[in-house]
Specification:
single chain, 7 strands, alpha+beta, acyltransferase activity, 4 helices, EC 2.3.1.-, GNAT_dom, Aminopeptidase, seven-stranded mixed sheet, transferase
Length: about 160
Amino acid sequence: MTRAAADVRRAVEGDLAAIAALEACAFPGLSYPYFVLRQLFDVHSHLMLVTAGAEGLRGYVLLAGDGGGQSWLLSLAVHRSHRRQGHGRRLLDAVLGLADDRGLGAVRLSVEPDNHPALRLYHAAGFCLVERRPGYLGSGHDRLLMAREAPRRTPCSPGG
């Protein structure tokens, strides 16, 4: 991970209860239940990252990708008491770095249209609006779909 992501680490099984609690607070009514997080961890733990301190979990991010040219940022949440301290940016930078290093392709996400802090974060990280989807997560839950294209790889020089 990059120097900016020094306090970011891979999630471990013991983080799941705290991640589920953070999900429930950050996304009331739309959070992943524990059993889903458990299964997502089993499949994508290499792309589930957290920031944590002595007081506990500060934030987490989850990316799903299989190298098929597209991946999805499934969740990014920071505990309310730790917002506006750079945790979201460090988590996003770290997981996008993993996606790039593993050649996972474009990264897509959905975000609530009125979540202006998240929109600023995603725009700053190179995400662009793809479309607005009314009812994307069910009735009354509109979302903006955004994408960040995979970085272009510099071709190798002859002989190298």
